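Tokens for chain A. Residues wanted.
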């Protein structure tokens, strides 16, 4: 679905269209498009967007490429911001002094937390941006900054609270050394009283003895199975699907493992993952996104599901160069949910899919959150 169109030859975003009968053309193929309002689908937010009433032409490229992805992220953020702050003015590509915000939220009067407004920056492959300089410019004008990354987006929705916030007033608090009114003894106590100490500690010579070296080597060689830090059965009484966080022998490197089946029929994928706060947060985001797929009765079945439609995807950071992990939830034709874990590198991708007959969504949610907790504790 496009998130950019032409109106009277000028480019426009969905949030700039005020009437449902506006005459619009696709930004890529020039075919007529219409505006579709933001709405809820199976409990999930769907941002305002354009669509081709007569069907998307085969040669239309309005739904791919880096430029389109950034436009899509900005438009979804603007649509969600209007829903979140209905009394504020929300516009795309607006300036505050010398800075231009992807999405600018302006309050009619100063907000008790966010100040004059919020500058929302949608980040798609712009890691070289000077984040501190951007924040300083917006904050000096009493605007808070919200950084949104790809992992905060789920389909046509974005989790604003999961982004990186830089609240304007936090930067306005001076360093304690600049505070007035303290007695001189307080300033003296704040000083560094003792220099840091560095000490070289030699490795015990006893550890070089032949018997100890041989014992250590023998113990390492016999450790030929993977150590399971955490394992969770995903299905019911007759299920054979497991999600595990394990360490490899010898290297002790961590892997996320999804296995299904037994014996010769066993399917298994090992994804190397960093034990980082970022990956822990991604597992929590994945769990929250799966939980939101349930309706008000706690039912995960979507009777209007398309054929194997992707509902949730989260990319995991790997310690192996040019390799990533991908957690994904898809809708099979029966409208239930299927869990996919993939190991992806240039030119190759392997994975395992656990369909609804082997999967209980509640157990998957608990397993993802437990995995996040274990990563944080390691």
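Reply:
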């Amino acid at each position: 679905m496009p998130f950019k169109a032409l109106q009277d030859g000028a480019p426009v975003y969905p949030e700039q269209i005020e009437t449902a009968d506006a005459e619009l053309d696709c930004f890529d193929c020039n075919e007529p498009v219409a505006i579709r309002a933001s709405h809820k689908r199976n409990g999930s937010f769907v941002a305002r967007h354009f669509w081709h009433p007569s069907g998307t032409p085969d040669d239309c490229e309005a739904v791919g490429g880096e430029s389109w992805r950034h436009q899509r992220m900005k438009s979804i953020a603007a649509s969600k911001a209007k829903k979140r702050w209905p009394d504020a003015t929300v516009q795309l590509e607006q300036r505050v002094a010398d800075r231009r915000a992807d999405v600018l939220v302006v309050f009619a009067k100063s907000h008790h937390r966010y100040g004059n407004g919020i500058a929302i920056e949608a980040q798609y492959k712009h890691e070289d941006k000077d984040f501190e300089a951007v924040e300083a410019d917006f904050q000096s004008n009493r605007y808070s900054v919200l950084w949104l990354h790809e992992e905060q987006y789920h389909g046509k929705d974005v989790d604003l609270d999961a982004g990186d916030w830089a609240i304007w007033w936090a930067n306005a608090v001076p360093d304690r050394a600049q505070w007035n009114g303290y007695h001189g003894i307080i300033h003296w106590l704040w000083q560094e009283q003792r220099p840091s100490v560095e000490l070289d500690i030699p490795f015990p010579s006893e550890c070089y003895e032949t018997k100890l070296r041989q014992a250590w080597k023998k113990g390492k060689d016999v450790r030929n199975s993977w150590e399971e830090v955490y394992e969770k059965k995903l299905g019911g009484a007759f299920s054979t699907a497991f999600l595990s966080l394990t360490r490899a022998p010898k290297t002790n490197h961590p892997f996320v493992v999804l296995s299904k089946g037994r014996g010769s029929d066993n399917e298994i994928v090992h994804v190397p993952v960093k034990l980082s706060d970022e990956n822990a947060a991604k597992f929590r985001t994945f769990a929250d996104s799966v939980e939101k797929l349930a309706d008000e009765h706690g039912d995960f079945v979507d009777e209007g599901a398309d054929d194997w439609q992707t509902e949730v995807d989260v990319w995991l950071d790997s310690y192996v160069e040019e390799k990533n992990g991908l957690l994904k939830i898809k809708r099979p034709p029966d409208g239930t949910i299927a869990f996919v874990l993939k190991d992806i590198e240039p030119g190759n991708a392997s994975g395992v899919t656990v369909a609804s007959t082997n999967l209980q969504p509640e157990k998957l949610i608990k397993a993802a959150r437990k995995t996040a907790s274990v990563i944080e504790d390691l």
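The domain at 227-377 is CATH 3.30.2450.30 (Secreted effector protein pipB2 fold). The CA atoms of residues 36 and 217 lie 66 Å apart.
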